[in-house]
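Deliverable D5.2: sample structural annotation.
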Amino acid sequence: MLVTISNRPRDYAWGSTTLLADLEGRTPDGRPEAEVWFGDHPGCPALVGDGSGRTLDAVRADAEAPRLSFLLKLLAAGSPLSIQAHPSRAQAIEGFAREEAAGIPRDAGERTYRDDNHKPELIVAVSDVFRALAGLRPLEQTRLLLDGLGDAAGVRALADRLSGADETAALRDTIQWLLSGGAQAEVDDVIEAVRGADDEAFAVELTALRGIADAYPGDPGVVVALLMNVVELRRGEAVFVDAGVLHAYLEGLGVELMAASDNVLRGGLTPKHIDVAELMTIVDTSTSAPPVLPARPVADGVAVFDAGIADFALWRVAVSGGSTDVALNGPAIAVSTTGGVTVTAGGSAVALAAGGAVYADEAEATITVSGTGEVFIAQPGR
């Protein structure tokens, strides 16, 4: 079966007022549009375009098919999202069982584990530039950044916290201190120093931090962000975020693919509940370069973003007047991001404009993309 699917954009406050409308060629209405979900996640299942009025979760339930292992989204950030990390599968199973036993309603604001699944994720830039925070920067570089912030008491206190020889332990201690509620004076000092800093070597980082501080005045997450890698993706580039890795999307339009979970532990830049103790049990405070995930070319105009996990892989298909086949490894969802393309499977053909999507069930072995444009295809990994 091949069928169109659609969904309404979610109106989170951080959403862009223009990016999704521009992609789809419609006039913006001034409201934020943050995410369009293409999947069967019960939080916002896609509507199936077969005239039945059913959602994709109902279609799969009627077919006695398991829930999809992935959730595909178009994400349009007009301002920074919260800093967050996601649990491993084992952590999610334990945490979900613990909160179920405690009787915490699954929709409660203080609920952390809304299901028992992990949530690794990747995002591919669709806008010309997509800005994000991803992972913790090596401390040698962060110390150099702090050297350019002057000698305010808060800056000195932060530098002292980060002076230990064990980077992982120093960052764990510092993040817990910043989010504890007892470091507000130091946070304010550091933010003020960032606003006045002028260091060409860290111009990208300082510009990003000032934008974050404007969006979240006085938030301790601004200083957590100072510890993180700033990533500027160009169109077609991606980052992959595994369990425990702190990240936040700042600005731009992307195709996001994740395991089908809603488990989020926040680490700042939000008015929502932050469970600092629980965050510290799952956060990975090791340092690294930005976790960029290169696309692996597999054919002319075809590349795959494969993080090596069973839940998902993302295929990018670009066609220019011809056609291309992609073998499927299970149920798949395809979304168009440019041009006019036709997607064919099992004898059915669907024309897609930018922003349009289709679902192919397990019976389909191949999807064919023809026309002129770009399509991303999400399916299980191998």
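Annotation notes: The chain has a mean pLDDT of 96. The radius of gyration is 21 Å.
The annotation will be released with the project's public dataset once the embargo ends.
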